[in-house]
Amino acid sequence: MKRPIVVELYTSQGCSSCPPADALLAQLAGRRDVLAMSLPVTYWDMLGWRDTLASETNTRRQKAYAGQLGRGGVYTPQMIVDGKTDVVGSREPAVAAAIAARSNDMSSVPVGVEGNPQQVHISVGAAAAPGQHEATIWLFRLTPQTTVNIAGGENGGRTVTYRNVVREIRAVGEWKGQPLSLSVPRAEAGASHQGLAVLLQQGGYGRVIGAALIDHPNFDYLR
Fold first, then answer.
1. Domain range spanning residue 205?
2. Which helix (H) or strand (E) holds 174?
3. What global pTM score does this model have?
């Protein structure tokens, strides 16, 4: 089974052009072949509404991507597909094309994640292709779905539902091309009602070569 293609949406409740991208991300989150995550950022808070889901960690990750992809700055709504391509997140044909392009380049490393009441266990397989010899293992804590009534700013009066909202990002290990297993205490990984995603990413913010998701509250199945 192929791994899911990772789509990260950098969005803000204070960005008037973001709701269509949020809606598209919600559609993508329903696909079995896509791991779709919302990463609300902080830099639009100055426009009159403080994003209730945003974090500086998400903002820093987007800025790191800007450097990696050779972009002059950051913007919203930005979708980054598999760490390789960025597109305007509201442009559905461009997003579909970027996902399709990655589906044809899927020399991936097996990644597994499973949870129990004590810990989250992550497994990473051996390198599947030349050049796959070093990558960061990222653990994302997610809120699977939340709805926000935006009371001010450019989107004042709108109600927006967000899917797979990133609440915390942690680098939990380095992979060197050989099979690897590691465990993270459940208390450090997040509460039982949250989802978890694991990304294996070259250079920290480069190409994604492995991914897995637990999106069930009881952590009793793997996607």
1. 5-214
2. strand 159-175
3. 0.93
